[in-house]
Design brief:
Length: about 375
């Protein structure tokens, strides 16, 4: 059976359903996560026969998930885990995956959620779940903010995120222990220091770095395989101004394995997560734009895309194209981007993404030109504006 996997992070919407039917594909049963964001939706071309492999193998054939429990995995790696006290604030997809993963690794975890049905649902699974955070008699703990950060038009709506953060601040005020607050929600660069920190300080009467520690630790999991992804991360990013916060989080998360990168500015971690998602979105839109061309001229895009995925250096070389500040040049890229725009226009297909690629390159060319001119003037002693 040929399986088509929409890339991760795509929502499975009625539009996808309609699209699958229009393309002569049968939508497969997708795991029911109780919400619309199903991450990768799987479509079958023919009869939807279930693949016997676990869902993670289907989604990422490189990382086979056949390992035993988290505890025995940690023992196998020779990592001695110190159990920690953990609170999860916002116990939806990310919060539940984070909390249950940390619980399975031997930590003591309490789930907090404003939604009573959600709390009851978690309690019914035998988890410690509550509607309010009470830190009054707790030891030094990790408090993960896994609150929603939806968009409203062209901006993030941080209403629920701010309300949940303020509640954490009030709970900190009633505690003498030194807790580490960890921003795990996806937020724009600067939010941890520009919003979370002042809200916590205002509501706790404490200062970050003294009364409590503050860090950013974005989540990279995919909704469709959230629990597996949390327990088997391929990348963990931790950022904090406070080296002790980094060290504490490293100790908590290192036993799960995968590559770990640490930064001293939370904005770097926030930027990584946003760029990560936007890069994935851009790749999906790129191939959808190409799919529109292929449809128009009667070609099947799948074998074409599968070949380019192995032929283009941008696909196979992780270093290619990732250094910002320089436009592409040479003969081929300028010629073929512009030439293909003319071709698509001639066959009546708009390519707004490719147009944006050319415009961005033109903009970078003028930025670099101005910088070179300014540097030249500075070197020759001519005053710049
Ligand atoms: N879903 C994903 O695949 C995914 C992956 C990586 C990162 N993220 C990011 O993680 C964050 C959480 O996403 P999610 O998908 O888990 O959201 P979600 O909607 O599944 O869960 C959020 C939970 O927070 C609860 N909540 C809302 N306000 C609250 C408050 N004031 N106090 C306590 N609980 C409150 C809600 O009731 C809900 O259960 C977002 O920033 C999202 O962008 C999501």
């Amino acid at each position: 059976m040929a399986l088509i996997t929409l890339d991760f992070g795509q929502s499975y919407t009625p539009r996808h359903h309609e699209m699958a039917l229009r393309q002569g594909r049968q939508p497969c049963e997708a795991p029911d996560l109780g919400r619309n964001d199903l991450g990768a939706a799987r479509f079958a071309r023919s009869a939807p026969v279930r693949d016997p492999r676990p869902v993670c193998d289907l989604l990422d054939p490189v990382r086979r998930i056949t390992l035993p429990s988290d505890r025995s995995r940690c023992r196998a790696r020779g990592v001695l885990m110190q159990p920690s006290r953990v609170f999860i604030v916002g116990s939806g997809v990310v919060g539940t995956a984070t909390g249950t993963g940390l619980l399975a690794a031997g930590n003591t975890v309490t789930f907090i959620d404003i939604s009573v049905p959600r709390v009851r649902h978690l309690q019914a699974q035998g988890l410690d779940a509550r509607t309010e955070l009470d830190l009054s008699s707790e030891p030094d703990s990790f408090i993960f903010l896994t609150l929603p950060t939806p968009n409203v038009g062209w901006r993030y709506d941080l209403g629920a995120f701010t309300a949940g953060t303020a509640a954490v601040g009030r709970a900190l005020a009633g505690s003498s222990a030194q807790h580490t607050v960890v921003v795990r929600s996806t937020v724009s660069p600067g939010t941890t220091e520009g919003l979370v920190r002042p809200v916590l300080e205002e509501n706790s009467g404490m200062t970050a770095g003294e009364g409590f520690r503050l860090a950013s630790n974005p989540e990279f999991l995919r909704a469709v395989s959230a629990a597996e992804d949390f327990s088997h991360p391929w990348m963990t990013v931790i950022a904090s101004r406070d080296p002790q916060a980094v060290a504490r989080l490293r100790g908590l998360l290192e036993p799960f394995g995968g590559e770990m990168r640490t930064f001293s500015d939370p904005a770097e971690a926030e930027f990584i997560k946003c760029a990560h998602n936007i890069f994935n979105a851009t790749k999906i839109s790129f191939w959808n734009e190409m799919w529109l061309i292929a449809q128009k001229i009667g070609l099947d895009l799948d074998p074409i895309a599968a070949t380019v995925a192995k032929s283009a250096e941008g696909s196979i070389n992780p270093q290619y194209g990732i250094r910002g500040g320089a436009p592409y040049g040479g003969v081929c890229l300028p010629k073929d981007t512009c030439g293909f725009l003319g071709y698509s226009d001639a066959i009546g297909v708009d390519m707004p993404l490719l147009q944006a690629v050319v415009e961005t390159n033109n903009r970078l060319e003028s930025v670099v030109k101005q910088e070179v001119e300014a540097a030249g003037k500075a070197a020759s002693g001519i005053p710049t504006a």
